[in-house]
Description:
The complex is a heterodimer of chains A (94) and B (1001).
Chain A: E1 3-6, E2 10-13, E3 18-22, H1 36-44, E4 52-58, E5 66-72, E6 78-83
Antiparallel strand pairs in A: 1-2, 3-4, 4-5, 5-6
Chain B: E1 14-23, E2 26-32, H1 36-42, E3 49-50, E4 57-58, E5 71-74, E6 81-85, E7 95-98, H2 113-116, H3 125-129, H4 137-147, E8 162-174, H5 178-189, E9 194-197, E10 212-214, E11 217-218, H6 219-232, E12 236-239, E13 242-248, E14 252-258, E15 273-285, E16 289-291, E17 304-306, H7 307-317, E18 324-329, H8 335-343, E19 347-352, H9 359-368, E20 371-374, E21 376-382, E22 389-396, E23 401-410, E24 413-417, E25 420-422, H10 425-429, E26 433-437, E27 442-447, E28 452-454, H11 464-481, E29 494-496, H12 512-515, E30 522-524, E31 529-530, H13 531-539, H14 545-552, H15 565-576, H16 580-583, H17 597-601, H18 618-623, E32 627-631, E33 634-639, H19 647-660, E34 663-666, E35 671-676, H20 680-687, E36 700-706, E37 712-722, E38 725-730, H21 735-748, E39 756-759, E40 764-770, H22 774-779, E41 796-801, E42 804-809, E43 818-824, H23 828-838, E44 845-847, H24 849-858, H25 899-902, E45 907-914, E46 926-928, E47 939-949, E48 954-962, E49 971-975, E50 981-987
Amino acid sequence: xxxxxxxxxxxxxxxxxxxxxEAHIARPDNPAEVSDEEWGEYLFFRNNPKGIHFERWTHDxxxxxxxxxxxxxxxxxxxxxxxxxxxxxxxxxV
Amino acid sequence: MSNQNRTMFGGRIDxxxxxxxxxxxxxxQGFHGDTLASALLANDVHLVGRSFKYHRARGILTAGxxxxxxxxxxxxxxxxxxxxxxxxxxxxxxxxAASQNCWPSVNYDVGSLNNILSSIFPAxxxxxxxxxxxxxxxxxxxxxxxAAGLGYSPTAKNPDRYEQKFxxxxxxxxxxxxxxxxxxxxxxxxxxxxxxIDENPELGxxxxxxxxxxxxxxxxxWIKNIVDELYSMDNVRILKRTTAMGYYDYNYLTAxxxxxxxxxxxxxxxxxxxxxxxxxxxxxxxxxxxxxPLVFADNDRPGIMMASAGKxxxxxxxxxxxxxxxxxxxxxxxxQTAFEFNDKGAKISIIDTRENIDIRIQNKCEDLGIKxxxxxxIISTKGNKKVNQIEVQKVDRKxxxxxxxxxxxxxxxxxxxxxxxxxxxxxxxxxxxxxxDKVLNTFVPDELIQDQIIIGCNNGxxxxxxxxxxxxxxxxxxxxxxxxxxxDNINWKGExxxxxxxxxxxxxxxxxxxxxxxxxxxxxxxxxVTAADIFLAQREGYISVEHTKRYTTTGMGTDQGxxxxxxxxxxxxxxxxxxxxxxxxxxxxxxFSPQTFGAIAGxxxxxxxxxxxxxxxxxxxxxxxxxxxxxxxxxxxxYFPKKNENIHDAVKRECLAVRNSLGMLDASTLGKIxxxxxxxxxxxxxxxxxxxxxxxxxxxRYGLMCNEHGMIFDDGVTTRLGDDHYHMTTTTxxxxxxxxxxxxxxxxxxxxxxxxCTSVTEQWTVLSISGPNSRKFLQELTDIDLSxxxxxxxxxxxxxxxxxDSRVFRISFxxxxxxxxxxxxxxxRFVWEQFMHHGKKYNITPYGTETMHVxxxxxxxxxxxQDTDGSVTPMDMNMDWIVSKKKQDFLGKRSFTRSDTLRSDxxxxxxxxxxxxxxxLPEGSHIVEKxxxxxxxxMLGHVTSSYFSPILGHPIALAxxxxxxxxxxxxxxxxxxxxxxxxxxxxxxxxxxxEGNKNNE
Lengths: 94, 1001
């Protein structure tokens, strides 16, 4: 079970959080104009990498804020947590 | 004669404290400090159980948590526990235990026929035999299940209390042997907060049973001093009788503390077990090692035990398990046991598989008059319920076979030692990597993954001095890493009588030919897996370790192969002529030992299992005979039966009261969210399918929410209270989900929108009054002008109701004239009782959720989650009217034009009227075009809601039917589970007051 550093509250036990899948999937600005294929991509397709993964978490039993987590799916090491709207970290942050 | 195997002196038991206990219905006596196993051996009871598959007589193999054989049913009634290891059960007054897996008794077990028939029960017997014909599996399963399993579970409710404890510290040390103690001492002296866990009732580990010295002084005294010092430190916490069960990511460790299991009187104030959830900065593993059995013919008879176990029974408990004893070994260490047995008066011979034995040991044997068979092996054992004779033969090293004359020896006990396996279970659970050590012939820790330290025998090091120094040093290092001021280092010197490392272990492997002889060479005692089974699995192609494990069941069961795994792997390596490294090992998973569900559940049982939510009027409902229904975590009145009324009578009465006069519903459980901020209208436009920009202050509007797939996911009425202030209601079950949904979009997509959401569900009590008399009734109790002109449908007013500041919404879920009165929760019951009192003249009738469902179904109002199931769009529900065509975008909109949502044959929401005018269709029934004798038949859809309508006098139903809107008036059939077929006609969804006049009166 992980220890996760909430960007607002600090380190807490994983039981206080929920994971909501891959991060940085922006909702299309104008959905009416995207093709079925592009809309399907947004709705259904997600990465499942072996290695670095970016995912969305919420601190449910805490501040209830959403934030992003950069995690290595092999070691389960959480490399970085950052606020929504912050720039996606690069490999140099590993 | 009692305690006939007890030595005159010695041991760490209290001979002054006699303890009476019962085993298999017979009374025995032991001493304080005994385990059940040691007390049984003291009383010359060797046969304690029957094996799993062949029902062979089994005795006590070990003296610790690795025990595969001596597992018993402990205690009676509600407290009985199966598969308890006799080697770990501390004796208490009145203890009752019994053998398992035998009938009618352990001595005369009918199941032992399996042993005679064993040639037809090899590995994979069940897979091969009961596969054909496939249709008979359910028949076979009944009998197989009956035969399977060892002990039995209690059927009564657990009378004990269990607790959970969350704990945080710098350093957790697993194992209170000398290594763990020294690490704890070093870290404790340096100021770290330390948690020391040990599964035994006494700290000191295996050295408590051996002769050794530390810094040239008596070892046991050292242990006592160290333990005393640790107990004196405020920063060190010691948990005895506590087993570390699981080692997870981020140094998260779970441990089970048996708090009062060893007591004869269970305390009311102390829990029986405590489940520890520990997060520490570093974890030190110091769990020691398990001795490895040797594989030889019929090596499972009672009277055959591990050499270290024999030593422990003798040294710690003063029990001599046999008088004519043979030691069978492949290493030096076990000789200590032989010398001790010799010293205590047993006649002992030694069978050593090795050719070159240390000359000092040879000399000592000669001095003591111990017969030493060098390069010999045991080739057979005899004795039905206890070993009484063995045959030994010379090992021909060149041929890897046995040769020469068979020598017969009369014995009553065999002590065996095949070397030591570090207890790597927790290390492996923590993702630590193992490597095979060719000198020790076992797996030892290699690569550490987490912030952890592994010391002592657990680390594959068996040199006492090295371990003492390394353990203390690592304790200091840990303190240094954690920025404590480190205590002084100490140079330690430890000496054992005979140490394990002085000679290497000889891998002993039986010759191939010998395996198939009539006898059984057990690898896994608990699961009755023999060497022949491992051979068979390899022949049949199960050559991966994971496959061999599952095919033969080696390493499974309550002991998880603590004694058997390495031997199974070594045998596979021998068969394939490949190094053990290449064979690999199976995955270790938690828990380390079996653990009770009670401890995992802790206090989260009964009413604490899941929180129960109650409205402010709940007590009144209880006092007035309400039958309750669970809606999510809420308790809601289902109906209010009067004397002799059943559910149908009560619901009929409640329904008619609403339709004809006045009814009242406790609707407090509806989700309520307070929305504020300048962008709220814009936000609602994105969340709901309809338009919100023009909603005036004081007006209410019904809204439908879809997810991005275009599927309905919640509905409710939202009211504009002020310029930037809205009050949203949601379904009872969907409240939390909607709240999260709003927050998700505000926090992740539209960060620039200024909207604040606050859950106010529990702040307001909602009294929904409904019926033709509701206006007249409520006007008598409020200063709000309720007239049709001044308070029209879908409007909101604030004012006093029964003198309480209230919010009143004119909305209706029954189709009748209705008012939803919201009062602050603390006044909920007061206003409810006022309403009941003043409403008498209108026959005010409290009603429950069933009546609510009937009334809304009569009007065709949907219930999200009942009529919808996450796969229907607003259009499927004929709710096109609520989907804005003008709005550019809202959640779900784009998905309405996906090819699947555009299909013309999608199921549509329709009404259904049974032709016989009396059958209430079961909800969920399949609807077919024409019912045939058997499938396939043309499926059209299913019934979503179905009730008897009291006002109409016949049943009504709602359904999802393919292309249903084009089938109005068509006949369909509904085959029921009882074989009957019901005919029904498709109708529209509004059954009562089709014009919708009643709520506008």
